[in-house]
Amino acid sequence: MTEVRRRARLGKVLAPYLLSLPAGLWLVVLFLVPLFVMLSLSLDTCNPATGGCAVSWNWAEFPQQISLYHSQFITSFYFAGAATLIDLLVSFPIAYWIAFYGGAKKNFFLLMLLVPFFVSFVIRTVVWEFILSDQGFFLGSLKHAHLLPQSFHALATGYAVVAGLAYNYLPFTALPLYVAIERIDKRVLDAAYDLYATRRDAFLRVILPLTVPGLFAAFLLTFIPALGDYINQQILGGTNDTMIGTVIQNSFLTSGDYAGASALSATLLAIALLGIFAYARLLGSRTIEEYL
Amino acid sequence: MSDKEGRPDQGSPMTDPAVWRGLTQPRVSRRQLVASAGAGAGALGLSGFLAACGVKGATTTKSSAAPAKGAVGSAEWWSKQKLHHTVNFANWPYYIDVLKGKHPTLEYFTQKTGIQVTYTEPISDNLPFYAKIRPSLQAKQYTGFDVIVMTNNSPPLGYLIDYGWLTPLDRSMMVNFDKYAGPLVKNPSWDPGNKYTMAWQSGWTAIGYNSKVIKNPGDSVGLLFDKKYAGKVGMMADPQELGSLGLLAVGVEPATSTESDWAKAAKKLQQQKSDGIVRAYYDQDYINHLKNGDTVVSQAWSGDIFQADLNSKYRDLKLLIPVEGGMSWTDNMCIPMYAHNPKDAMAVMDFYYDPQVQAVVEYYDDYVCPVPQAKNVLLNPTGWAKSALHDMQPEIGLPTSTTADAPTVFPTVQYVKDSRPYYQYKSPEELAAWNKLFLPITQGS
Predict the structure, then answer these.
(1) Do the chains contact at B54 and A135, CB–CB below 8 Å?
(2) What is the mean pLDDT of residues B31-50?
(3) Can you tell me the distance from the alpha carbon of B214 to that of B296, in angstroms, rounded to the nearest whole number?
(4) Mean pLDDT, to the nearest integer, of A156-175?
(5) How far is A33 from chain B (nearest CA, A)?
(6) Partner-chain residue, chosen from B135, B162, B431, that has the shortest CB–CB distance to A48
């Protein structure tokens, strides 16, 4: 074997590793290291003044935090779940319409879906605060016309928080759904009609089953970020709808309770991972690669 | 702070400057390089990562009373400092005079002294900003700022003083301060003798209400607990503000309160929430909700109400300093340790105690002025202030006498009498106990 050939073979062996280096470094530096720091912090005891933390293997932090804040976890699940459901119901027709009837302007319609994203997340939410204000343009006019009682308010309620979440995360639902619907071979629909399927049958028995992986991907992409959201509740919510993201933020920034905040974050992360794991078991990991 | 964390650091190799030198400077022998690489590898343990992330144990102990001879902040040390003709000033947003995108008082300062000021507004909350500069202070490095502005009602100012992370001021450079500073900010309880701080502005946290809806506000904090306005009352999410109001409501002076008083106050506030009186716990945006009519009465900062009043649309908003007292806070200029330009920092800090300069700031700001004499300048402007105020008038749209006559800028005797200081936490444990009582109120579900 010549030197040149040996070198070529070595290159072949190394190439995949070298190619995965950027992604690997990214994963290690920006995900695994922070994750490790967070997990170790959750077992520390910290001084809020100096930020000094010492490992104390304080496992009690977890049950303690969960018993303090379990209701905020439950609220987060309700709100994120409701928002995701709304998003699925709203974005399915949108995605379906763009995929089947968008024609040459498909890209334009997709762009329109993304346009609100050019505005900052916080600004978009604050604008809702003005739109929904008690005496504002919308509710104020309805109250003026005596269609709503004076005491009615939308802001500072759980409904406003769910609406804000649903609004802000809609594209995360619509885009994977679009991908799923778009790749359906339109000829299978023709085949269904040839076999005397009604439009309803064709949708329920052909289209819907084929989009299930897309639905799950859309669910995960919307539900998980909505679960940890801490902006919508703070801007649109009231006194009894705090989500766990707000608690974590306050623990970090207001109390300087790094250990407690880390324990809560780790719990939230564990729940999200369980969800993804269940998804992978139900639908196989291949669909994750395709849609996420 | 606990004993364990107070112990000096047992040598975290990542923070050894020699290592950094070894890793970053090109001219090292091969042997040196290998040695430092070894040290670097050793640092890649947990402690190294944590140190790099700024979460290692503290290395400082509480500062002693007076700077030792020759130590940072002593007279000898100050006598050796030189002007560098540059200073980095970090402040809160919308807190200094603005005219056409520039700051007239800062330009005047540069013109008079030749010191260039890099003025930035990175501070929007005390604790997060403190968390940002703390790792530099722990590593004994320049934070990037020569002057920072910290509020006395939030724990970080006390932390900075306790851990020796502020440079004691140069008494000899406080000429304007000694001459013009008002009684509210001279020798204050949070910094006896102004050893570390000079006030930037002060204000009250009191009650803002809509006088169109509330005709008889009364004179008490009870207004915030009135069931008539259920669902229309705004409270502050900040645990210090919320807790202090609760203490006033149960008839206790916040500054001298005890932990059992705090529990009583928390109970009162919890009741206020479960009665459906509170609409929400707000941050800085409480003022928008008060303007919109979402709330008709709210905990409020004095300057915000004054500024809202300037707009005819919101003239119905009024400030009430209750008989129980208005919480009085002060934002303080101070010099963080390891500042590169301490002498320039002293110059700019003292410059703001010139009544002419302060009058211009106040004309824009409308918070409580630390220099009572600025009132006369606003009434009868002379010299530099005259032209600066004249230039700003079209944009502000008010006669300077409006600012001069505002009791929220130049407080009346009654206002000063009604001012109450905040509780000063004596230990991190006390602060944790306070937060544990008042944070859950704002975080209901």
Answers:
(1) no
(2) 36
(3) 8
(4) 94
(5) 8
(6) B431
Query: Could you read off the pLDDT of B407-420 as tens digits, one per residue?
Result: 889 999 888 889 99
pLDDT digits 0-9 by tens, A19-40: 889 999 999 999 999 999 999 9
**Domain spans of chain A, in order of start:** 64-291
Quick: pLDDT tens for B80-124.
999 999 999 999 988 999 999 899 999 999 999 999 999 999 998
**Residues B43, B158: Cα–Cα separation, whole Å:** 32
- With CA atoms as reference, report the closest residue to B359 among B94, B93, B97: B97
Interchain contact, A51 vs B134, CB within 8 Å: yes
Name the residue in chain A with its Cα closest to that of B444.
Answer: A240
3-state SS, residue A288: helix
**DSSP secondary structure string for all residues of B34-79:** HHHHHHHHHHTSHHHHHHHTT-SPP---PPPSSPPTTSTTSHHHHH
Do residue B273 and residue A126 have CB atoms under 8 angstroms apart? no
CB B278 within 8 A of CB B235: yes
User: Distance between CA B224 and CA B239 in Å, rounded?
Assistant: 17
- Alpha-carbon gap, residue A190 to A185, rounded angstroms: 10
CATH of domain A64-291: 1.10.3720.10
- From residue B183, alpha-carbon distances to B179, B356, B371, B403 in Å are 11, 19, 9, 20
Please indicate if any CB of chain A lies within 8 Å of the CB of B363: no
pLDDT digits (tens, 9 = 90+) for B325-334: 999 999 999 9
* Nearest residue of B to residue A253, measured between CA atoms: B128
Looking at residue B309, its amino acid is: D
Closest CA to B125 of B221, B239, B47: B239
Check: CB of residue B334 under 8 Å from CB of residue B168.
no
Of B55, B293, B444, which is closest to A41 when you measure between CB atoms? B55
Whole-angstrom Cα distance, residue A61 to residue A44?
9
List CB contacts of A245: < 8 A, sequence separation 6 or more.
A76, A227, A228, A229, A230, A233
Distance from CA of B7 to the nearest CA of A (A): 11
Which residues in B lie closer than 8 A to residue A74 (C-beta atoms)? 445
Give counts: helices (H), strands (E), chain A: 14, 2
Q: Calculate how close chain B gets to A16, using CA atoms only, in Å.
A: 26
Nearest to A244 by CA among A222, A268, A262: A268
Q: Which residues of A touch B128 (CB under 8 A)?
A: 253
- Please give the model's pTM, rounded to 2 decimal places: 0.80
pLDDT for res A292: 54
High-pLDDT (> 90) share of chain B, %: 67
Distance, CA of B183 to CA of B302 (rounded, Å): 19
- Chain A hits for B288, CB-CB cut-off 8 Å, are 129-130
Taking an 8 Å cut-off on Cβ atoms, the answer to whether B49 and A33 are in contact is yes
